[in-house]
Automatic annotation (TrEMBL):
Residues 3-113 form the PIN domain. This is Twitching motility protein PilT. InterPro entries: PIN-like_dom_sf, PIN_dom. It comes from Neosynechococcus sphagnicola sy1. CDD domains: PIN_VapC-like. Coiled coil: none annotated.
Amino acid sequence: MTVVLDASALLAYLKAEPGGDLVDGVLAESVISSVNWAEVIQKSIAASVNVDGMLDDLEALGLVVEPFTPEDGEMAGRLWEQTRQAGLSLGDRACLSLGLRLGVNVLTADHAWTALNLSLDMQVIRT
């Protein structure tokens, strides 16, 4: 995998929002945390989207859903102190934890992440 997707990035792709084209270009090489996958499902259901088969369709395009490990949980908990001023949620920190564990770039639609001082390459998908 070459990139970790935040839920916001995958949702931008699914909803054909600005920045979704960037996600489309890397989807075949993307991974998402199971925590962020849960966010995508929840937000899709809230928008009255039928999620039956959604995972199969995205996996066919190359997306991998990575389990949230105990190590990811510890890292997400530790990131709270460093990210709380930016208001990052547990889901945000789960995404960052996966990016740190895998050592790959993270894509998000959340501009607040750019202010973080993490040893991780992050790209905001829209201006």
